[in-house]
Design goal:
alpha+beta, 3 domains, Heat Shock Protein 90, 5-stranded mixed beta sheet
Amino acid sequence: MRLSPSLRPTAWPRSPRYPYVSGVLLVLLAAAEVLHSRITSTTVLTTLPFVVPPLLWRRREPRVGLLVVPAALLNFLFRPELLMTVAVAGVMGLYSLARHRVLHPAVLITAAITGALLVNAGHLAMGVYDLGGRAPAVGADGSLSYFTESFVLAVGMVATVGVADAFRSREESRQAREAAQRELITMERRHAAAQERAAIARELHDIVAHSVSVIAVRAESATYTTPDLSPPARDGFQQIAASARSALTELRQLLSVLRADDAAEEAPVLPQPTLDSLDALLEAHRSGGGEVTLRTEGTRPPLLPPSLELTAYRIVQEALTNARRHARGAAVGIRLAFADDEVRIRITDDGPGPQGSPQVSGGHGLSGMRERANLLGGRLTCGPAGPGGGFLVEAELPVRAGAKSFAEDVYE
């Protein structure tokens, strides 16, 4: 049976509650030691609060170790019988200093050894060692044994700094590996997306663009190769050629976006259609034999977000395309209503209704219009216009949500 990651012993020290739980346990241990040993020394009792309680905040503020370690050495100076609480607290404070690199390891080790020697010298000066009333003679036989405690303290402190620095290095290496792995995954995803875009671009170029260019060429040449063409038929062929050339321009723009690479130069940004382009769109619809009227209500704000204008244009464009495809000859009515906080679009036709609608035919135009409206925080509804037939498209586009470019939302 495998333990969950949060219940593993190695995961507990990483818990946010660990410093507080261990600190409280250390405070209780200090109180028990004071009561059991009946400590009455004012200096020991005064320094003890500076040794243990600050460790509660050692993770949030590692610099408390600068208070804990000197206080622990001072406590040991005045109580040579080293309290277990003071020893553990000193190690924890020194570990926090080294683990978080409050000071360089070399500086910590130097300061720790200096502190150990000073405590040892203080014990010698205070006559802690029982030599039968004689003063310690430094340089005599066996005098090095007087410095055993400083040697033990120095070894313990150096080991603590070394272990803390090793854990820090291991954690930094782990974070670097994870960052490199995340970057690799991101690069692989970008590469896969670039390959997919390139494949789509190839299909569009090899199939769609080629077919549209053939239409443009044949429509253009038909006016010269077909004898006895009437002026309306000649104009019709010219309009077909112009529409095909316009479609090719948009295809090239789309291909430049699909083939754009993050490391390469950005694709050239061409002007996007706006509400000012609606007149040309309606005229193109009328030149193809369609009937359309446009009515505006309210005052158009002087500075509408470009993303909103592009979305409104595309919705009208798709509605007119659907009308030509599914309700040939139907009259289309477009109403644009401007308000301070939104733009409302209502498009109706007097065609056969849902039987020939794009919903029934399985097209993707309506879903595309709905997605464009949703990206701006608006909504789009469509369906039968009424019992008498026809189709209705209504959209509400909030102005406040259109400040971000639609192109940024799509290609970000």
